[in-house]
Amino acid sequence: MDRKGLDLADTVWTKLDRKAGAIVELTVRQLRHRVSTWVVLGVGAMLMVLLLAFYIDAVRDGFEPIDNDGDSVDEDSDGYPLGQEMKYGTSDFDSTDYPGSSEYVSESSIGWNDGLRTFYGNKTWSGQALFDPVWVDSGYEDDDPWSNIVDWDSTEDCPPGQIYDDWHPIYGTACHFEDDLHYVYGEWRGEGTVYVPEGNFLQWGYYTEPFEVAPDPPEKYIDEDDIDCFDSSGNRVVCPAGDRLSGSHGYDDDGDCLRVGWVEGRDGDWFLEWDANIEDNFDDDRNNNGIRCDVLWEVDADGNEVRRITADSYVDEDPDDEAYVGELGHRTFIIGVGKMAFVILLGLFIPLFLALGLVRDETESGTLHFLLSKPIHRGEFILYRLMGYMVVSGSYVLALSLVMGVVTAALGPGDQIFRLSDLPVWLGIGLATTFVLAAYGALFNTMGLISPKYGVYVCIVFGVWEFMMGTFSIINPNWDISSISITHWALQMIDAIVLLAWPDTLQWAEIGAAYGIETGLSFFWHPPVHTLGTQSAAVALLVSVVTLLSVTVVMMVIGQSVFSRREIM
Q1: Distance of CA 530 to the CA centre of its chain
Q2: CA distance 414 to 328
Q3: 137-155: b or e for each residue (b if 16 or more CB lie within 10 Å)?
Q4: Where are the domains of the chain?
Q5: pLDDT digits (tens, 9 = 90+) for 248-303
Q6: 520, 332 contact by CB (below 8 A)
Q7: What's the pLDDT tens digit per position in 201-215?
Q8: What count of Cα atoms within 13 Å lies in the side-chain half-sphere of residue 509?
Q9: How far apart are alpha carbons 80 and 212 in whole angstroms?
C-alpha cells in the first residue's frame, strides 16, 4: 500500500469506524445471548403466525353472500320476504297484509268535534257509532280473538243505563241499543245510517279486490342490488375506477326505492319509515341532486379521487360481497396488523425489553468502566449501543414485514397471481416500525440513565400512555392530544404510505361506508392529517419521519448530557 493509503488508514474516520464497529458488534452479541431477546422476538413471530393463520382461514373459506340490507327476512311468516313487501308497501309484521292482499282505502270520517255527526252509506266502518242498519255483512269476521271486527252473530242487548255513565262499550263488539239501533265499537261492513256521539271517532271506506302475487324466494334478496357505475356514455364500468367516476351512478335493481308494484295509499305505514341498517327515514333523493333513486359520487378538484359517496334510500344497498368484501377485508387486515401488531405492540415491547438497559446493564455488571477506558466519547458510546440495538430490532421487523407481505400478496384477492402493490405497504410498515423502535429505544435508554432504579417503572407507565394514544390515533387522528405521542407519528406514516401505494384507498373506504360493507377499513385507516395544508401524502410522510428522527436525536442528546456528568464506579 502506498504512503497515501497508509495515511488514510490512520485517519480519525477509520478509527471512528473501528470503534463503532466494535461496540455495535458487542451490542449485537450481547442481545443475541439474552433470553429476553429471543422471548420477545419469538412472541412477536408467533403473533404474526397466528394472524396469518386467521387470514389464510378467511381466504380459504371464501366470502359467503351476506344480506347487507336485511330484506331477505320474513318476520310475519306469510311467505313474502321483506324486500318484496317493501316494493308493494305491505307490512312484514302482519301476516294478513301481504303483496296482493286487499287494501283498505279510507274515504272520509267524523272526528271528535265535527259538527255534522250523521252519515248514510254502504261502507266498511271503523270506530264507534250508533248504527241503524239496512243490512249487515254477518260473514265479515275474523277468528282472531284480538281482532276489532265485530261478530254480529253474538249481538246482545246493551246493558241498562246511560252509556259511558253506567256502562262502557267493549272493543270489537256490537249490542242492541233500542228499536233498530245498535251501538257498535270496532270494524264492520253494512249499509245504513250512523250517528257518532260527541267525543268519538268513526271512519269509513272500502277494501280493494285482492290479486295474485307469487312469493319471491328469500335468496332473491341477497346480493340483489349490486353497486352500479357508468361512464359518461352510459356504459357500465368497474366502480373502483378513480378518475372516471363522478356525478350520478347507481340503479335500484330490486325496486325497493322506485317502489315497483306500490299500492296507492300505503305512504303512512310506520314500518316503511324505518330501515334496519341505516336507521334513517326513507328518502328517494337523499343526496339532493334532483335525481330519484341514484348514487352521487363526488370527486376532488383534480378529478382523481372519490371524496364522498351518498346513496338514496335502498339504492345499491346489497353489493356482491365477494367482489368488495374481499378487497376491503384484505386492505383492512394489512393496515390493522401494521398499526396494532407492528407499530403499537412490537414498537413498544421490543425497546422496553432490549433498549432500556443498553447502558444501565453495563453499569450494573461492572463492565462499563472497561469500555469507557478506551478513547471513546460517552455520546459516541450511546450512539453505537443504539445502533447495535437497531441492527437486531430493525432487521427483525423488516424481515417479518416482508414475510407477511409475501404471504398476503400471494393469497390476496384479485385476478393477478401476486399482488406486487402489497409489498410497498408492508415495507412501509416495517420502516415505520423501525423509526418507532429508534425513538422508543433512545427514550427508554435515556430514562434508564436518568433513573437506573425506577426507570423501568416510568417506562411501563409511559408505554401504557403510548398504547392509549395509539388507540386514539387509530380512532381519530385529528385529536390534538394524540399528536404528542410517538406512536401517532408512526401511524401517520402508515396512513401516508398506504395512500401512496394504493391511491384508490380513499375511494374504497368511501365505498365501504356508503354501502354498509363492514370490514373495518374506515376504522383503521384515515387520510393523513399533517400535510401542511397540501393534502399530499408525501408531505405527511416527510413530516412524520422528521418528527420521529427529531425525537430520537433529542432523546440521545438528553441521554448523553446525563451520562457525561455521571461518575462511573
Answers
A1: 23
A2: 12
A3: eeebeeeeeeeebbbbeeb
A4: 16-64+322-564, 104-207
A5: 888 888 888 887 776 655 554 434 444 444 334 678 888 888 888 899 988 776 66
A6: yes
A7: 999 999 888 888 899
A8: 22
A9: 12
pLDDT on residue 276: 42
The rounded distance, in Å, linking the Cα atoms of 254 and 265 is 21
Burial readout 227-243 (b: 16 or more C-beta within 10 A, e: otherwise): bbbbeeeeeeeebbeee
Q: Give strand pairing partners of 110.
A: 202
Strands 118-136 and 156-157: unpaired
332 contacts 421 by C-beta, under 8 angstroms: no
pLDDT digits over 375-403, tens only? 566 667 778 888 888 899 999 999 999 99
User: How many Cβ atoms sit within 10 Å of the Cβ of residue 431?
Assistant: 20
Can you tell me the distance from the alpha carbon of 327 to that of 306, in angstroms, rounded to the nearest whole number?
17
* Structure-block grid coordinates of residue 308: 364522498
Q: CA 209 → CA 8, 93, 268, 383, 409, distances in Å?
A: 106, 21, 20, 89, 61
- CB proximity list for 120: less than 8 A, separation 6 or greater: 192, 193, 194
- Sign, CA torsion 497/239/249/71: negative
d(CA 377, CA 106): 96
- The whole-model pTM stands at 0.71
Report the distance separating Cα 51 and Cα 43, nearest Å: 12
User: Do residues 242 and 306 touch, judged by C-beta distance below 8 A?
Assistant: yes
The DSSP symbol for 197 reads: -
The answer to whether 302 touches 323, Cβ cutoff 8 Å, is: no
- Rounded to 10 deg, the angle between the 422-450 and 455-475 helix axes is 150
Angle between helices 537-564 and 486-501 (to 10 degrees): 150
- Supply the angle between the helices 12-32 and 378-411 in degrees, to the nearest 10: 60
**Cell 453499569 found at:** 363
Strand-pairing partners, residue 249, are 295
Cα–Cα distances (Å) from 399 to 53, 429, 437, 501, in that order, read 18, 11, 15, 19
The Cα–Cα gap between 253 and 237 comes to 16
Residues 186/150, Cβ–Cβ less than 8 Å: yes
